[in-house]
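So, who can interpret the following?
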Amino acid sequence: MKILVGIPVLSGFDHTRDAIDSVLSQENVDLLIIDNGADLDVKHLFILYSQDPRVTIISIQHNVYVNPA
């Protein structure tokens, strides 16, 4: 069974890299990265990880705010 993990990303280069590496170190896991208007340094991470066939990236041009219910 495969698991899909989604990570919405806005900022935080080191935290984002650590989260992506943690997910990709697991077996049978695919990763969905949601670029929620991320900072430029974080966008450079997406270029590196986009080569991995387990990674899908969805880009949103500006930050879509999410309010708690």
